[in-house]
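Structure in, sequence out. Go:
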């Protein structure tokens, strides 16, 4: 399955790959909603606005990659907006595109609804902490493979909204609001299993 991002330039993809190799990062991927929207637009012929956000996940330092991208593309094109040391993330602007870079991580919630404790992890572990299956796809830029651990493509094709795991709402109740927004904006149906989790 080919993923073609109409609003991401080839030189940005090349810069991400080159920068990651330069600083010794072995794995970098595009993740989340931009892949979901590409499938909806190009394979299901849905009319969806092009995303203005690009989410990057890597096994390594998000801050180091952001600095290398800025060095590679130049400060005229790149600005670092915010660094969040607690969540191992960097928010930056590349041309007119908002780029969020995150170190792959796993989260442990001390108690329901509290901020999680963060630990660096593998890409697959990072995908498992996300909210819905439709947002858990990753395009691994190191080998151009699509990583789909939770049958995300099927959920997108079937227009189904489902939590990744049984404690999604318990850990973060705001996922209910996000789910309602996704359902409304993308015309998705919340699965009975997920509705049961919300009610409980």
């Amino acid at each position: 399955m080919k993923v073609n991002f109409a609003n991401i330039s080839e030189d940005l993809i090349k810069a991400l790959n080159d920068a990651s190799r330069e600083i010794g990062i072995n794995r970098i991927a595009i993740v989340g909603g931009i892949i979901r929207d590409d499938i909806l637009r190009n394979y299901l012929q849905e009319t969806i606005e092009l995303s203005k956000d690009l989410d990057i996940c890597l096994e390594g330092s998000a801050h180091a990659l952001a600095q290398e991208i800025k060095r590679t593309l130049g400060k005229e094109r790149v600005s670092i907006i915010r660094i969040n040391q607690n969540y191992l993330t960097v928010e930056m602007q590349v041309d007119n595109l908002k780029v969020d870079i995150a170190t792959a991580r796993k989260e442990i919630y001390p108690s329901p609804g509290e901020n999680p404790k963060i630990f660096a992890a593998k890409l697959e572990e990072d995908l498992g902490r996300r909210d819905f299956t439709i947002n858990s796809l990753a395009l691994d830029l190191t080998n151009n493979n699509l990583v789909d651990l939770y049958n995300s493509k099927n959920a997108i094709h079937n227009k189904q909204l489902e939590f990744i795991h049984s404690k999604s709402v318990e850990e973060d109740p705001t996922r209910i609001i996000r789910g309602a927004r996704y359902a409304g904006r993308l015309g998705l149906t919340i699965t009975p299993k997920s509705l049961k989790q919300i009610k409980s």
